[in-house]
C-alpha cells in the first residue's frame, strides 16, 4: 500500500511558489501543497479501495491475514455504504475523499492515528458521519506541542463546488464548541490504552468534572489544532493554471474563526482526471466483492 500510494499521489510543489508566481491562500497559516497523480485514476481508485480497512479500524485492531473479511465488515458497520442504493447515491458518499485525506496526511506528514474515523459511523442514522473528517496527531518537538490534525476533505468534479462546501462549514469547524464536541466524542470512542498521555490527562480531567472547559484544558497542555483541507477535483486545464484559479477562488471567501485554541490551516490540492470514474471503479470492486488489490 505504501508503494502504491507513493507512486500514485506525488508532491508537485508547495505554495507560495515564486517560480510559478502563485501565492498561498490568504487564509493559510503554513504552506499549501499541490499534488499530482503520478500514474492513473485507476490507481487512485486502488488506493481508496485498499484504504478502507485502515480508515475504519485502529492500527492495533487490524489482522493482516483477514483484510478482505475486515473490509467487507467495514462496509457494513464502519462506513456509510448501502449496496442497494442508487448509483447516484453511492457516488455521493463521503468516504472516498475521507480515506484519501487520512492516507495522504499519514504518508506525507508522518502522523499517528488518534482514533479510527470508522468508529463514528452510526448504522441506524444512515447519514454521513458528523464531525471533522479525520482524527490524527503529531508531536511537534520544535514547539513542544501536541498537534491535533482534525481535517476536512471535499471530493467533487468541480473545484468551485468543493470550495463552496468547505466554506459552508469552516466557521463552525474553527469554533470552541465544535472542537470540544469532537474531543469529547473521541474520549467516548477511543481505546484508553492507546491514547497518548497528554490526551489521557484531558480525558481524565473531563471524566472527573464533565463541566470543564475542554479548550482551556487543551491550551494549558500546549495543544494546537491543525486543520488541513484537501480538495480533490477534476483537472480540466493546465496544471499550474488550475492551481492559480483554485487559489484565487479560495481568496474570494472569508473566515470568521472563533476558536481560542491556537490553530494552523492549509490547503492540499489534488487534481485528478475524472473523479466520477474513480468512484465508479471503487463501487464496481465493492459490488463484485473483489479482494484487495
User: In angstroms, what is the radius of gyration?
Assistant: 19 Å
How confident overall, as mean pLDDT? 92
Q: What share of the residues does DSSP label as strand, in percent?
A: 15-25%
How far the N terminus sits from the C terminus, by CA atoms, comes to 9 Å
Structural class: alpha/beta
Biggest sheet, open or closed, and with what strands and sense? 8 strands, mixed
What does the overall shape look like?
Answer: globular
- Enumerate how many helices there are, as a single number: 12
What is the ordering of alpha helices and beta strands? HEEHHHHHEEEEHHHHEHEH
Find the count of extended strands (DSSP E, 2+ residues). 8
Low-confidence stretches: none
Using brief descriptors, characterize the structure shown.
single chain; 293 residues; alpha/beta; 12 helices; 43% helix
Q: How are the elements arranged and paired?
A:
Blueprint: H1 2-8, E1 9-15, E2 32-37, H2 41-50, H3 52-56, H4 67-77, H5 87-92, H6 95-109, E3 112-113, E4 136-140, E5 145-149, E6 152-155, H7 159-173, H8 176-189, H9 197-208, H10 214-220, E7 223-234, H11 239-250, E8 263-272, H12 275-287
Parallel strand pairs: 2-8, 5-7, 6-7, 7-8
Antiparallel strand pairs: 1-2, 3-4, 4-5
Helix pairs in contact: 2-12
Amino acid at each position: 500500500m505504501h508503494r502504491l500510494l507513493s507512486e500514485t499521489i506525488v508532491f508537485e510543489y508547495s505554495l507560495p511558489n515564486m517560480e510559478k508566481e502563485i501565492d498561498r491562500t490568504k487564509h493559510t497559516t503554513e504552506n499549501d501543497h499541490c499534488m499530482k497523480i503520478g500514474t492513473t485514476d485507476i490507481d487512485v481508485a486502488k488506493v481508496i479501495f485498499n484504504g478502507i480497512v485502515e480508515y475504519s479500524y485502529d492500527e492495533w485492531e487490524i489482522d493482516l491475514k483477514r483484510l478482505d473479511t475486515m473490509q467487507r465488515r467495514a462496509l457494513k458497520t464502519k462506513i456509510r455504504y448501502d449496496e442497494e442504493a442508487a448509483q447516484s447515491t453511492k457516488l455521493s458518499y463521503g468516504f472516498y475523499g475521507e480515506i484519501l485525506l487520512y492516507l495522504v496526511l499519514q504518508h506525507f506528514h508522518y502522523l499517528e492515528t488518534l482514533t479510527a474515523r470508522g468508529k463514528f459511523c452510526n448504522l441506524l442514522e444512515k447519514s454521513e458521519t458528523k464531525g471533522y473528517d479525520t482524527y490524527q496527531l503529531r508531536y511537534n518537538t520544535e514547539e513542544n506541542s501536541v498537534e491535533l490534525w482534525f481535517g476536512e476533505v471535499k471530493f467533487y468534479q468541480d473545484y468551485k463546488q468543493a470550495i463552496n462546501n468547505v466554506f459552508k462549514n469552516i466557521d463552525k469547524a474553527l469554533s470552541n464548541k465544535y472542537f470540544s464536541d469532537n474531543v469529547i466524542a473521541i474520549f467516548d470512542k477511543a481505546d484508553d490504552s492507546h491514547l497518548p498521555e497528554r490526551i489521557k490527562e484531558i480525558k481524565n480531567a473531563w471524566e472527573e468534572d464533565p463541566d470543564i472547559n475542554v479548550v482551556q484544558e487543551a491550551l494549558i497542555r500546549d495543544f494546537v489544532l491543525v486543520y488541513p483541507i484537501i480538495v480533490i477535483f477534476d483537472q480540466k486545464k493546465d496544471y499550474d493554471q488550475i492551481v492559480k484559479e483554485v487559489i484565487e477562488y479560495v481568496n474570494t471567501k472569508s473566515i470568521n474563526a472563533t476558536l481560542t485554541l491556537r490553530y494552523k490551516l492549509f490547503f492540499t490540492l489534488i487534481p485528478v482526471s475524472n473523479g466520477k470514474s474513480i468512484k465508479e471503479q471503487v463501487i464496481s470492486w465493492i459490488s463484485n466483492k473483489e479482494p484487495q488489490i
